[in-house]
Amino acid sequence: MQKIFPPYPKKSLRGDAWWAANALLWSASALFLLPFLWLLLTALKPVEQTLKFQWLPWSYRATLDGEKVEVIKERPVAEASVIVRVREGPRTGERLLLPAADWDGQHARIEERKGDVVQAVARLASLETEAHAGWWRVREKFLRKYADRLPRWTCLPESQIEEKVTFWWENFILAVEYLADTEEVPLRFERQEAVPQLYPDADEIDPGGGRVFLPRQGKVALLGPRGKVIDLARYDTLRLRVSSGGQVRLLFGFTSPGGKGTQTGHEVVVRSPVEDLDIPLTRVLRRAGLKGACPAAGLWFEPTPIAPEVGLLDRLCAFIANIEIDSAGSTNGPPPVTLSEARLIHHRATFWTYLGNTLAVCLLGCIGTVLSSSLVAYGFSRLLWPGRDQVFWLVLATMMVPFPVLMVPLFGIFRDLHWVGTLKPLWLPCFFGSAFNIFLLRQFFLTIPQELSDAARIDGCSEFGIYWRIILPLSRPALAVVALFHFLWAWNDFLGPLIYLTRPKTFTLSLALQFYQSQHGGSEWHLLMAMSVLVLLPIVVLFFLTQKTFIQGIATTGMKG
Q1: Distance of alpha carbon 521 from alpha carbon 531, whole angstroms
Q2: Which among 59, 419, 458, 485 counts the fewest CB atoms within 10 Å?
Q3: Is the four-CA dihedral 123, 127, 128, 131 of positive or negative sign?
């Protein structure tokens, strides 16, 4: 068959025009990629570098007291200075960085506060080292936020500080750990003088109950708040702050109310000078044969076989467990194991709780939106009934009503249904259709030939059968677009969860992220960015996996033929 019109001539870019077009596209892509790249790189920085104008995260290592450790470059030394240790006065023992002019060889001119007055006083001091102009004041960096000692510091020349690009992937682990709503009960180490039978091998216990030093094999009892009974089955984690230099074996001894004693072990490795160990308490209890039962694993006010003659426990506190710490090393010199803090933790909601709530809202909402919107769109596009077009325009008009206008009436309805505080207000309304999605699917259904429906009717197929067996299979690209649009919207929705959700156990990721920021004042920027990357990553992956179907559905919507 001869064509009436000649084919449209195809033109292609060549030479400089081709390079210019590609350069423009790459520039536009880089412009939109920069915010995500900045977000990702900030999430991989340590907290002290988040507010600095630098793209890549750096790590610095230097030698302090003969040990090479991770350090923070605080500030450069502006003038010739000295590091001295004060030998007299109220600041005895402090190490200070002073200008060389304030040091005469024996005395240092330092500032001391007396009441509301600050005055410079000459105090006897000893010189430790000199710092030249251009050197850096460096401070020891702890991997964790808390430590049981002050960080070491000194001044070093630039050549003695090793630096390299290091990505702090552990920020994502900390983000998952900190994005949780927890209930904590502080535990204390009972004084050795009060219950000596419980500590036959203890080397020293802080009278204040805040720290316990143990030799190679030591035992210590953890006690809860005075006068309060704690159910161990309620808590899932026992957190111990341990200082050691290697592998530590924890032996937990429990005594049931019937007087039968049992113990179980849990091996951990302390990799840093100070580390918070999260002991899975449920697993330890199960290993001890208690299976998390409240009567056996709970606390009681009875004398125990470990110290049967001690009646102090009846009046003061509930006895939890006898924890024996066995670590390799010599008992000579400083004790190799130090416990400075102990807490019982109940994770009422974790990152995985928020992720599960978000996925539930998104997936249930996608199912409801696709089913209801496609069914209504089928009635507007494939069926003839009086007033169809007028009703369709009325549905489109609802798109112009802003959500704040409907917010108060909807809240009243969901409150009367007792849905406030649950996830139902976030996904059940999706089963009643969406004006935009109805419009999108109607336009796509109009592109499907009417002859297919007529042939199915002649074969005896019902209207619902035509909708389910013919229209929906042919509309997969458009349905995928509707599902993806709703998934993106529900994943990022913040206002809906903020209005209807009242308990952290029901929070979605967007609301949990804001909850974390309000709890920590927005100062943990590296963790906040890490959490944002974790929230954004599933959406990015989903879009790349479905972009072909997404583009096909958008491109074919509303096209005839």
Answers
A1: 15
A2: 458
A3: positive
- Report the amino acid identity of residue 20: A
CB 427 within 8 A of CB 486: no
Pair of tokens at residue 73: 């470059």
Q: Give the SS3 label for residue 467.
A: helix
How far is it, in rounded angstroms, from Cα 361 to Cα 358?
Answer: 5
Cα 82 from chain centroid (whole Å): 42
Instruction: Report residue 215 as tokens.
Output: 């030799």
Structure tokens at 390: 């007028």
Residue among 494, 509, 508, 350 nearest 423 (CA): 508
Contact present, 414 and 420 (Cβ < 8 Å): yes
**180 contacts 347 by C-beta, under 8 angstroms:** yes
Please give the chain's pLDDT, 561 residues, in tens. 444 445 545 555 566 777 888 888 888 878 888 888 888 999 999 888 888 888 889 999 999 888 888 899 989 999 999 999 999 888 888 899 999 988 888 888 888 887 778 888 888 999 988 999 999 999 988 776 666 678 889 999 999 999 999 998 988 988 888 888 888 888 776 543 333 333 344 444 454 445 555 544 445 666 666 555 566 667 788 887 776 655 556 666 555 445 455 555 566 666 566 677 777 777 766 766 655 443 323 333 233 333 333 332 232 233 344 455 554 443 444 445 667 777 888 888 889 999 999 999 999 999 999 999 999 999 999 998 999 999 999 999 999 998 889 999 999 999 999 999 999 999 999 999 999 999 999 999 998 999 999 999 998 999 999 999 999 999 888 898 899 999 999 999 999 999 999 988 999 999 998 888 877 665 678 888 888 898 888 888 887 777 776 666 555 554 454
Residue whose entry in the numeric block shows the structure tokens 């007792």: 418
pTM: 0.74
